[in-house]
Amino acid sequence: MINANGFLPEDRRPVVRRGARSEEGSCRHLLVWEAGPGWRMVSSAVLGGGIGERGWVVNAQVRPGYDRLDPDRHLAELAWAEGLRGPGVGLMTAAEVDDCTWGEDGGAVAVVTTGIGVPTWAAAPPAEPALPALPAVPAPARYVPGTINILAVVPAPVTDAGLVNLLATATEAKVQALLDAGYDCSGTPSDAVCVAVRTPDGPRAADPFGGPRSLWGARLARAVHRAVVEGAHRDRERRAQRPGAPHPRPVADCLRENVLATGRRTG
Length: 267
Known about the structure:
This protein is an alpha/beta fold. The chain is 23% helix and 26% strand. The protein has one domain: L-amino peptidase D-ALA esterase/amidase, CATH 3.60.70.
């Protein structure tokens, strides 16, 4: 199932497509993984967070300064418009989902969208503002969106305790990646993670472990680390450039059948 380079055959990897919709006068993209039945997920997402059976994951790009007070409902509407039914997970970001990166190690796959507009340390001193003010510059000249969203997929059954541990391991790998990429932070205030494993079924025992020295924890950590390092470098490059003007509605080129077939794999 896994080749000599530690990669899954292309037809065994998750298929993550890119969709698009018109919203507030601009075309906005979103990533969609239609996992189907047989997956158990743990997530900190605003929609479908917690732990349980989930059949899909959406990572939707929204405008900078997003201020809706019902993001869960908004994500549910987007999922419905994409034809997704049943329980799933919805993530949200103002970062460029088009520039997602992904890493793979021993069958574990991580898909990451990276925006480090508000870098922060989790244990910042109380006197430090949670959202420091940005310099007053014209909006078109500065790219400020943030949020690091991670979708990590393990093609094996894992117990709920091991699944929670995998989420912690993915977060640890993200922090390590940011430091290795030259950032002085543990993430942004709005980061989210979703980890998916196969639902235990039949005689195959569920792995009880998910720490960084367990079989799947180590593989997941390396996949996440590679994807976040590349995403952090790409985000730094975007911030050095003037952002392009958005187009008002979706066009044929907005859609992709599988971003993992054409995106930036690291590993």
